[in-house]
Amino acid sequence: MITVALSKGRLFDDFIKYLEEKNLDKYSGVLKEKSRTLYTTSGNVRFIFAKGPDVPVYVERSVADIGIVGSDTLEEDAFSYLNVSELPFGQCHFALAGPPNIERFETIASKYINIARKFFNDEQQAVSLIHLNGSVELAPILGLADGIVDIVQTGSTLRDNGLIEYQKILDVQARLIANKQTFYTKEDDIYEFLSEIGVIE
Amino acid sequence: MITVALSKGRLFDDFIKYLEEKNLDKYSGVLKEKSRTLYTTSGNVRFIFAKGPDVPVYVERSVADIGIVGSDTLEEDAFSYLNVSELPFGQCHFALAGPPNIERFETIASKYINIARKFFNDEQQAVSLIHLNGSVELAPILGLADGIVDIVQTGSTLRDNGLIEYQKILDVQARLIANKQTFYTKEDDIYEFLSEIGVIE
Fold first, then answer.
1. Which of B133, B160, B161 to mutate to test the interface with A (most CBs of A within 10 A)?
2. Is A201 a domain residue?
3. d(CA A152, CA A101)
4. What CATH number did the domain enclosing A53 receive?
5. What phi, psi does A154 have (nearest 5°)?
6. Closest to A133 (Cβ–Cβ): which among B53, B61, B130?
7. Which residue of B has its CA nearest to A57?
8. Which residue is closest to B140 within chain A, CA to CA?
């Protein structure tokens, strides 16, 4: 038995689509049916549904053998895990955005305060950073910040709030990570699952 | 014009009920109607809907003059604001919980890592703390922790997961906070609103 921690939300839907394209109904079926519970099992695989930032915690602490999570989460905080593979879904990117005609950003709001800090450090630009938990796109409208660092998918959230993208910071996509010990001690079961879902040949 | 930041979720529903009991349809009406947007206005009052932990950020930084938020959020992180009043809703409490028959807790999972740390420091008990973002009640089932520090309302989440309450840590309820400057510079408008909603006579 292996345990796979899945990030709830957008990535979860993408993962189900990915399984459906590979005709892996044994997994996509139970995942769709049980998405409102906390965990479910299909054959030899137990799935735990977790908030994105909890997935690497579960993997690091051996509660899950494998985790499927956005690289945004893995870049924002430091965890200990094996980086097994990129997955072909969940593509988006981090961007610096703000209202048009900002010459120099002074205050930046972001949910991803570490990624924002690293970006401005690398740019050698001194800014004041404000950590928010939601509705980051509202910050420039409210006068809380003159810019934001946020994930951009289609760009419609930026447009709806009168913001434009100033600079792309970092590509984001789904990643498959593994626990550093059980990747070896449960090698056969893990390889079988990775092979089934097409991550290895 | 004054701006009031409201915590989305459970407290938001409680606040609407509170307004309805006081026949303040001018506020409860627009709040119910607009709860899916990011902000709305009624007369002289603009409401911003925010995630709980962002409410004190808005108040501290003068984006909102007043905030209505759970004391759990105010206790977990340090912010600068005026503590105006407790509000008669949002009552619950923090508790230490776990499976039955735990003699000594060694690993504790919590969303409220600072409250958990303070509790065990005060108890002079050394524990290992794990910060989670969701589904904390799952941690003992998964073997991630032997106990949790979490908010308890009815106790049904604990019961559903086979957990019992070991110790009450702290009472929680809704609080009304204000920005330290605008509480004086916008005194008349703020007092009018506080009087309307029955916080002051």
1. B133
2. no
3. 20
4. 3.40.190.10
5. -95, -20
6. B53
7. B132
8. A63
Confirm whether B201 is domain-assigned.
no
Residue B22: what pLDDT?
93
d(CA B55, CA B48): 9
What letter represents residue A4's amino acid? V
Query: Do B125 and B160 share a domain, yes or no?
Result: yes
Assess contact for A59 and A71: CB atoms under 8 A.
no
- B65 against A8, higher pLDDT: B65
Residue B131, domain extent: 92-171
Q: Which two tokens stand for residue B139?
A: 């941690």
Are A21 and A59 in the same domain?
yes
- Read off the pLDDT of residues B61-96 as tens digits, 9 standing for 90 and up: 999 999 999 999 999 999 999 999 999 999 999 999
pLDDT of residue B35: 67
CB atoms within 10 A of CB B10: 16
Count interface pairs A-B at CB distance under 8 A. 60
> pLDDT digit string (tens) for B144-188?
999 999 999 999 999 999 999 999 999 999 999 999 999 999 999
Question: Above 80 in pLDDT, residue A150?
Answer: yes
Q: How close does chain B come to A102, measured CA to CA in Å?
A: 20
Q: Is A63 found in the same domain as A19?
A: yes
Give me the pLDDT at residue A36, please: 72
pTM of the model: 0.92
Coil, strand or helix: which one is B167?
A: strand
Q: Which residue has the tokens 């660092």?
A: A149
Split into its structural domains, chain A has a count of 2
Looking at the structure, do residues A85 and A159 belong to the same domain, yes or no? no
Tell me if B98 sits within 8 A of B38, measured CB to CB. no
Residue from A201, A192, A200, A196 nearest A86 by CA:
A200
Query: Do B114 and B39 lie in a common domain?
Result: no
Does residue B177 sit in the same domain as residue B162? no
